[in-house]
């Protein structure tokens, strides 16, 4: 017995290290091994609960924390972990009880006192909102009280303008340019976009059938979570886009494009950009998808499969962009509702706070209403069923049952609508409890029966996952071909590669928010480097910055660093460049030197120090390899082959994720 206890402690130490390295799934596996050796250690259960929370598996977190409390009723962290999971689910009353117990066990703990007060505020606010709530049937639409035509646009406003009632591509492009520069859209035009979208969505059924004509394609994207727009750094004079590279990225399905052929002079082959004092045009996420795959149009239609908002700090810009494209051409873009298109999620995870900060309280209510008009699922050419979450707790659900759902409400906590938005696949057959605490988990037999019952799919096709060349990385991944005859496409879960194929090839999860919630981005590396550039211009003697980083530095990138070192030997000898490629997860993709510039890259796991000495100028591209990749799927009619394209995260302005989240949630993140 003592041997088992000792082994459990050793495994716990390994689990803790995995947790610190943000390897939460690995940590869960290790804590599970420790629990199997000694299930009477409350710490193991509470720690595993914490790891589940990091993966947003709040149902599993609650179960583990409850077990920790059963093992040791005086163990305060058991109540603490369970309370945090309840808060993340919006269950304030349950959370309040747990934090009251934490305070009772640890009366002098200031952290427990602070969290209890925040929880009490949230519970009181919820109670007040319930008291003043109006029955759905009696509620008057906020849209009826808005006349955007009467809102004056100030003369000093220089942003995008809608001329008349028609939203054009020129307007959308101008709006996107403004968003790139972190400018806001005037509320008159924001109202116009949201109100017009409301009318378009309201006319749609709960299940939308989409016909892709022969020879044409259709793109399905997963969660983007407000990680939306691109930003040019200040101080950039110009940039030149190499058309060949952009076109190759846009059209590449199986073609290989080597960026090194574009700019052999070394001026900069980062996405083919060059230019004096160019630091970087930073694309991130939503616009990055459009850069890779083209803007939405009738010839290039998209379906975004829910969870457009929350967590990321550009949710408003993302949703206005998607809505504007719908208004411009309803057949160019389709939207499915996700579990985050709801009041309860928006209140906790940031969208409500962001809208209040950037627009007004009235917009919060308007968006909540329009989200209730979003369809719940789509079917492509009678072959591919697309839904945000997953399938159902009972067999025999037909497409006609989904069409008949009255979706014009907040998502319920059970039933078909809830399960469409919340459920997840599981590797084992049958059904099981949801790791999230809402919906359920379903096996491959459930998927197979649903597709057969609804006669989805008729022809064989192959899926070819591929990675586009990005920045200096021109490494393409080709996976084994899969034969599919019918398909369920869903989102809702972050995946390391941006996608996962499960259930004997009948189910694909696609997730389009790479480096979800900035999992690896611990410091603003681009902001730090910009400071170096600014100091270089001022002819300072020496700058030292420290950058935290995580994860493994891949063999390919180390080879690339070696090539850089070999190329720059002569420059290094004369005070140019010295590279130590042992550094982890940090790629100096390209540097331009001037005269007596000296850059030393020194690695000391897990800290990387960059020391710059210079007299005239410095140009550096620093690219931090992120966490998970993102992906989207291109289908082409008539066979509807899924071509899965994965892409890496790109840097973005120094606005952290969850910046607008509820106060108590920020305390736990």
TrEMBL record:
The keyword DNA damage does not apply. Its EC number is 3.1.3.16. Keywords: Hydrolase, Manganese, Membrane, Metal-binding, Repeat, TPR repeat, Transmembrane, Transmembrane helix. Its cofactor is Mn(2+). One of its GO terms (molecular function) is protein serine/threonine phosphatase activity. CDD domains: MPP_PP5_C (cd07417). The chain crosses the membrane at residues 267-287, 314-335. TPR repeats lie at residues 42-75, 76-109. Residues 185-540 form the Serine/threonine specific protein phosphatases domain. Belongs to the PPP phosphatase family. PP-5 (PP-T) subfamily. This is protein-serine/threonine phosphatase. The lineage of its organism: Eukaryota, Viridiplantae, Streptophyta, Embryophyta, Tracheophyta.
């Amino acid at each position: 017995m003592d041997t088992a206890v000792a082994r459990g402690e050793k495994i716990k130490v390994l689990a803790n290290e995995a947790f610190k390295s943000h390897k939460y799934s690995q940590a869960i596996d290790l804590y599970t091994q420790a629990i199997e050796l000694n299930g009477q250690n409350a710490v193991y259960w509470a720690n595993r609960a914490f790891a589940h929370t990091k993966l947003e598996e709040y149902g599993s977190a609650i179960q583990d924390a409850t077990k920790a409390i059963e093992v040791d009723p005086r163990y305060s962290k058991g109540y603490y972990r369970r309370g945090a999971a309840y808060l993340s689910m919006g269950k304030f009353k349950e959370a309040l009880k747990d934090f009251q117990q934490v305070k009772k066990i640890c009366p002098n703990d200031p952290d427990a006192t602070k969290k209890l007060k925040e929880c009490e505020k949230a519970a009181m606010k919820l109670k007040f909102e319930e008291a003043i709530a109006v029955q759905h049937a009696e509620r008057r639409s906020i849209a009826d009280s808005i006349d955007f035509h009467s809102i004056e646009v100030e003369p000093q406003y220089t942003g995008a303008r809608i001329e008349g009632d028609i939203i054009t591509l020129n307007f959308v492009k101008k709006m996107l340019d403004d968003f790139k520069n972190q400018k806001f859209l005037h509320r008159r035009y924001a109202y116009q976009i949201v109100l017009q979208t409301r009318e378009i969505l309201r006319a749609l059924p709960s299940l939308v059938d989409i016909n892709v004509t022969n020879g044409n394609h259709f793109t399905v994207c997963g969660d983007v979570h407000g990680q939306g727009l691109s930003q040019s750094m200040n101080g950039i004079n110009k940039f030149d886009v190499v058309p060949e590279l952009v076109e190759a990225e846009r059209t590449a399905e199986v073609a290989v494009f080597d960026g090194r052929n574009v700019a052999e002079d070394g001026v900069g082959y980062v996405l083919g950009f060059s230019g004096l004092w160019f630091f970087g045009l930073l694309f991130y996420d939503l616009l990055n998808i459009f850069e890779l795959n083209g803007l939405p149009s009738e010839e290039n239609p998209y379906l975004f499969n829910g969870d457009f908002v929350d967590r990321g700090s550009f949710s408003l810009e993302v949703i206005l962009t998607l809505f504007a494209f719908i208004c411009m051409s309803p057949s160019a873009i389709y939207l499915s509702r996700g579990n985050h298109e709801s009041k309860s999620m928006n209140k906790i995870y940031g969208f409500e706070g962001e809208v209040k900060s950037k627009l007004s309280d009235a917009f919060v209510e308007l968006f909540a209403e329009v989200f209730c008009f979003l369809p719940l699922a789509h079917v492509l050419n009678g072959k591919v069923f697309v839904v945000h979450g997953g399938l159902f707790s009972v067999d025999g659900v037909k497409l006609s049952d989904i069409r008949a759902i009255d979706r014009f409400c907040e998502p319920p906590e059970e039933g078909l609508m809830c399960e469409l938005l919340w459920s997840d696949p599981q590797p084992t057959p049958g059904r099981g409890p949801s790791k999230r605490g809402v919906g359920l988990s379903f096996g491959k037999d459930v998927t197979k029966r649903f597709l057969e019952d609804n006669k989805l799919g008729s022809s064989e096709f192959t899926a070819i996952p591929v990675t586009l060349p990005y920045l200096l990385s021109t490494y393409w991944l080709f996976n084994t071909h899969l034969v599919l005859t019918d398909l369920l496409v869903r989102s809702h879960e972050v995946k390391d590669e941006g996608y996962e194929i499960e259930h004997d090839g009948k189910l694909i999860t696609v997730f389009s928010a790479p480096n979800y919630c900035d999992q690896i981005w611990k410091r603003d590396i681009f902001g730090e480097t910009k400071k170096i550039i600014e100091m270089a211009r001022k002819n300072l003697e020496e700058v030292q910055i420290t950058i935290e980083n995580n994860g493994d530095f891949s063999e390919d990138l180390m080879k690339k660093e070696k090539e850089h070192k070999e190329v720059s030997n002569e420059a290094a000898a004369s005070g140019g460049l010295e590279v130590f490629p042992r550094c982890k997860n940090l790629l100096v993709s390209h540097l331009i030197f001037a005269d007596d510039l000296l850059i030393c890259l020194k690695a000391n796991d897990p800290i990387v120090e960059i020391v710059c000495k210079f007299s005239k100028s410095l140009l550096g591209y620093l690219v931090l390899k992120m966490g998970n990749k993102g992906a989207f799927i291109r289908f082409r009619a008539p066979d509807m082959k899924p071509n899965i394209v994965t892409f890496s995260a790109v840097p973005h302005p120094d606005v952290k994720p969850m910046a607008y989240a509820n106060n108590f949630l920020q305390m736990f993140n």
